[in-house]
Design brief:
Layout (H helix, E strand, L loop, with lengths): L8 H35 L2 E2 L8 E2 L3 H7 L2 H32 L7 H13 L2 H11 L6 H6 L12 H26 L3 H9 L4 H12 L1 H16 L3 H6 L13 H11 L3 H29 L4
Antiparallel strand pairs: 1-2
Helix pairs in contact: 2-13, 3-7, 3-10, 3-12, 4-7, 7-10, 10-13, 12-13
């Protein structure tokens, strides 16, 4: 057997410097990610006291209560309905915009890209305030244009759609930038050969762009599904607590926030968020299985 070579003094110093540079990141992950995640799992099996202290182990009682609570199932349904609106529309619209704005010959293309990306960098509070004004039943711009008196965010039948539209508007720019990046990676030779063969622009889009862009599309869909299933800030700022439509719109994270911070029931709130995590993991596994069938790598 070969003897292991001893590290030189210089190698030891380089290793120590490496650990020193990595230490802040690792410490941040442990304090801000790993410990809270482990503590959340633990608290889901406990009845927590004031300020999260004095935990009493209650086993699966919180989970049994959550599975029997209609509000939890309704909130999960609300979350899925929101994702059904935001993800498909956000992906399709962003893809179409990316195809048009990928043409550098188009005048003002940089300005258009900036305009569409602006909602992504706007403060959520400002976005919510503007859209609440647009949706206002008495003085809102939409009702003034349509000459209607529609309760956009207080009617339980349409409020979830109205919130979903805000989500689509907010995320289009981010998805568009990712699609443009993916389009840059497609070799132009494919389009030239297709044009020589007489393929139209629509045929090139569905037979070249869509298949070769599938890795980017899958990444966007996967990240946006997870983002949509964990939506909170948008609903929290758009929907008032006294809103009659809130039970038909509130997401699972919104219910978690209500029980954990408003009512101080951190054990029950932890159980709710763990159920959501399990659901997201299930959806992720399904999408990973679908990747092998629908994603093409050139």
């Amino acid at each position: 057997m070969k003897e292991k070579k001893k590290m030189t003094l210089r190698a030891k110093k380089e290793a120590l410097w490496g650990y020193a540079f990595v230490a802040p990141t690792m410490l941040g992950l442990i304090i801000l990610n790993f410990y809270p995640a482990i503590n959340t799992v633990y608290q889901s099996f406990c009845k927590t006291g004031d300020f999260g202290k004095g935990n009493t182990f209650v086993g699966l009682a919180n989970y049994q209560k959550a599975f029997a609570d209609p509000e939890i199932w309704q909130s999960l349904l609300n979350t899925v309905k929101y994702a059904v609106i935001e993800v498909p529309l956000g992906v399709v619209i962003a893809l179409l915009l990316a195809v048009f704005l990928n043409n550098n010959k188009l005048k003002g293309v940089s300005a258009f890209r900036t305009i569409f990306f602006l909602p992504m960098v706007c403060a959520p509070a400002a976005v919510a305030m503007v859209w609440k004004w647009l949706y206002n039943q008495q003085f809102g711009l939409f009702n003034n244009i349509l000459h209607k008196n529609i309760a956009w965010i207080s009617d339980p039948k349409i409020a979830w759609i109205s919130v979903g539209i805000i989500g689509v508007w907010s995320i289009i720019g981010y998805n568009m930038v990712l699609f443009i990046s993916g389009l840059k990676e497609i070799p132009g030779d494919y389009y030239e050969a297709a044009s020589i063969d007489g393929a139209t622009g629509i045929n090139q889009f569905f037979n070249i762009t869509v298949p070769l862009l599938s890795p980017t599309t899958f990444f966007i869909v996967q990240t946006r599904v997870i983002g949509a299933l964990t939506i909170f800030d948008l609903m929290f700022m758009v929907m008032d607590k006294t809103n009659a439509a809130l039970p038909k719109v509130q997401s699972t994270v919104y219910v978690f926030y209500k029980y954990t911070f408003d009512q101080g029931n951190k054990g029950y709130g932890a159980a709710i968020v763990m159920i959501l995590v399990a659901f997201i993991m299930l959806v992720t596994v399904v999408m990973q299985r679908a990747e092998k069938r629908f994603v093409f790598y050139n």
